[in-house]
Design a protein that fits this description.
Elements (H helix, E strand, L loop, with lengths): L1 E4 L13 H10 L3 H7 L13 H9 L9 E3 L8 H14 L2 E5 L5 H16 L2 H5 L11 E4 L15 H24 L6 H4 L5 E3 L2 E4 L11 E4 L5 E6 L5 E5 L2 E4 L7 E5 L1 H6 L9 E3 L7 E10 L44 H6 L2
Parallel strand pairs: 1-4, 1-6, 2-3
Antiparallel strand pairs: 3-11, 5-13, 6-13, 7-12, 8-11, 8-13, 9-10, 9-12
The structure holds N-oxalylglycine and nickel (II) ion.
Protein name: 1-aminocyclopropane-1-carboxylate oxidase
């Protein structure tokens, strides 16, 4: 499981200082960005500041009123199935994102894991340091700023709140894979049978309030190296999706969950479904807490390769991606520019 003390940095390409050294010094504090905030910093360290050209672009981009689709799952086991499948298909083909309500996970289960992540991050820093690692082999990892080293972060321990959340979110994941299978014109069990919901990771994020939010980001633009991601966010807001050439905020809904198509599903659907870039802006108001569940398919236990699903390809619509192993994709994550899904590019035939 992954928990990150996430805050922000970006893929700075040109630097006139020893960035690696400053990143390492920050990492060695093992206190994360929260450590900086707790120490009362007023100016954020330069390793977190975005390149000037990005900051200028941000100031000149305009706002939009469009909204990520919200899908009501009430009636999914009954007479609403067809309608819901149509909504899922439309969202997966255009936005790559949607929110779900009436998904069956009780509100207290959502609230308790958010509270658990907040408490973990706010406990004594000496206790947290015990979990601080970037070693993927450790089940529970606490870590910071995933893109500082272009590696994934995270976190923590087996509590009832976490177990209960996992039980519920994996069940919802199975339902969503059924809907996505139907939306692709396959039988309901197809994505489940090829193992899409088989393994998962649970990156949990804590974004402290930021003294200079306009200079940095909570999480830089990326797409997810997963089949599907289910994200629970608190009510602070800050998640944005890149749609129609602009960043669109994902409005928090009490009891709602955000769902997004990952790179692997874009590959197996042969580009029918879109894995879309998203990011988290920093804010003066915080902390913000979120928890993602990445469904990774068969990964460690049974190294199974995936490629475009046969039923979805034809002579007129030939496969455009090569087969891949989920495990080969992790090191490639985050080496991408905001508008360039590099993992997908690397898998293109
Ligand atoms: C992620 C992610 C968004 C958030 O974990 O990949 O995009 O709101 N998280 O924390
Ligand atoms: Ni993501």
């Amino acid at each position: 499981m992954d928990i990150s003390d996430a805050s922000r940095t970006t893929t700075q390409t040109v630097t006139d200082y020893d960035r690696a050294k400053e990143v390492q010094a920050f990492d060695d504090t093992k206190a994360g960005v929260k450590g900086l905030v707790d120490a009362g910093i007023v100016n954020i360290p330069r390793i977190f500041i975005r390149p000037p050209e990005e900051l200028v672009e941000e100031l000149t981009s305009h706002q939009t009123n469009s909204q990520v689709p919200v899908i009501d799952l009430d009636g999914v086991r009954g007479n609403k199935l067809e309608e819901i499948v149509d909504q899922v298909r439309a969202a997966a083909e255009t936005w790559g994102f949607f929110q779900v309500v009436n998904h069956g996970i009780p509100l207290n289960v959502l609230e308790e894991i958010i509270e658990g992540i907040r408490k973990f991050n706010e406990q004594d820093v000496e206790l947290k340091k015990e979990f601080y690692t970037r070693d993927r082999a450790r089940n529970v990892r606490f870590n910071s700023n995933f893109d500082l080293h272009y590696s994934r972060t995270a976190n923590w321990r087996d509590t009832d709140a976490v177990r209960e959340y996992i039980k519920n979110v994996t069940k919802l994941g199975e339902t969503l894979f059924e809907l996505l299978s139907l939306a692709l014109g396959l039988k309901a069990e197809h994505l489940q049978e090829i193992g899409c919901p088989k393994e998962y990771t649970l990156p949990c994020h804590y974004y402290p309030s930021c003294p200079q939010p306009d200079l940095t980001l909570g999480a830089t633009g990326h797409s997810d190296p997963s089949f599907l991601t289910i994200l629970l966010q608190d009510q602070i807001g800050g998640l944005q999706v890149f749609h129609d050439n602009q960043w669109v905020g994902v409005q928090p809904i009490v009891g709602g969950l955000v769902v997004n198509i990952g790179d692997f599903l874009e590959v197996v659907s042969n580009d029918k479904f879109k894995s879309v870039n998203h990011r988290v802006v920093a804010g003066h108001v915080g902390p913000r807490v979120s928890v993602a569940c990445f469904f990774m398919g068969h990964n460690a236990e049974i190294p199974k390769s995936y490629g475009p699903i046969k039923e979805l390809t034809s002579e007129e619509n030939p496969p455009i991606y090569r087969d891949f192993l989920p495990s080969e994709c992790f090191s490639k994550r985050f080496s991408m520019a905001v508008d360039d899904n590099s993992l997908l590019h690397q898998l293109k035939l």
